[in-house]
Amino acid sequence: MHRLYREQGQSPWLDNLTRPYLRDGTLAGFVAAGIRGVTANPTIFARAIAGSDAYDAQFAALIAEGLAVEDAYWELAAADVVDAAAILRPVYDTSGGTDGFVSIEVAPELARDTDATIAAAGRLHERIARPNVFVKIPATAEGIPAIADMIGKGVSINITLIFSLARYEQVIEAYLQGLEALAARGGELAAVRSVASFFVSRVDTEVDRRLEHSGDPEAPGLRGRAAIAQARLAYRIFRDRFTGPRWEALAARGARVQRPLWASTSTKNPDYPDTRYVDSLIGPDTVNTLPEATITAFEDHGTLTRSIDTDPAGAAAVLGELAAVGVDMDDVGRTLEDQGVAAFHRSFADLLTELRAKAHQLAQR
After folding, report:
1. Which of 136, 153, 268, 358 is catalytic?
2. Quick one: residue 31, left, alpha or beta (phi over 0 = left, psi -120 to 50 = alpha)?
3. How far is CA 173 from the centre of its chain?
4. Residue 137 is inside which H or E element, if any?
5. For this structure, is 136 an active site residue?
6. What are the mean pLDDT values of the chain's consecutive 10-residue runs (365 residues total)?
7. Number of alpha carbons in the 13 Å side-chain half-sphere of residue 212
8. Which residues of 167-198 are buried (b: 16+ CB within 10 A; e: fewer)?
9. Domains and CATH numbers, the chain
10. Crossing angle of helices 201-212/329-364, nearest 10°?
């Protein structure tokens, strides 16, 4: 994975975080092999905590101290993030603060509440207090002003659950407005980092489902083409928005670009190549988050060639063809956003239910 960064300027991050990985050297091994960051979300934390006894001792101690179950969860998650940040701190230092980040997301039930998101993001930032930790905020309509607010306070943010170009434009605008507010306050722009997590494979899953029900004879030929085309156009938006007088004024104050992060890059459809969403989205100033299986596949047979901006006109043509057969990409984005928020909420709720049952068992001993 070193070559992906050194030769192409793309940072590979691991899309997983578990306590066993922290304890047995697995995460340190990934970092030594070229992984430059770690992302997690409510589903990942739920799977990690529910699937391992590595958390039981700390959880029991927290419950014995009188903590509520949800408060105990945040202690478990924060402990993992702190330990992961320590492992990745050398990457953060040697990269000048570009990489070496670990992400922790605000509670998913806050996704539609701006004020609650701002408050929760502030608490997480203060609680963990590590320079190489991102607080994750979802790119819902209600999340957009929270992003601007946090950036304006100098908090580094990972914006998650971006599924459409329209929403991505709003995310970039929120970042720029936040930097401008921070500059007006005399803040240190160089200390702020941000990534915009643009989800990929789920787009093909939803678009392909719609194409199957289209009835248009041209629809089958468009299967599996939407996600990469949209991500490539997102990269063009990124390049366009981080140039020109407005951006240059911020850059002169030390501001750094908000890098696009390709999320959901494991292949969901077994008919598609397993490195499809890595091979096709390689380019400078980007991040790709990969689960373990995709890392292994790319190291074995991936194609290490710049591909993100090879054919922007072709990418635009694909979206035009999709519109012609009745696929509304903005509606696709709204659908996937709703599904993503709901899925994270279910994972979080299920985990809390399981932890409450475990707390009850502990109380009976």
Report:
1. 136
2. alpha
3. 18
4. strand 133-138
5. yes
6. 96 95 96 96 81 88 93 93 98 97 93 97 95 96 98 97 98 98 97 97 97 93 97 98 98 98 94 96 98 96 96 96 97 97 89 86 73
7. 7
8. bbebbbebbbbbbbbbbeeebebeebbbbbbb
9. 2-364 (3.20.20.70)
10. 120
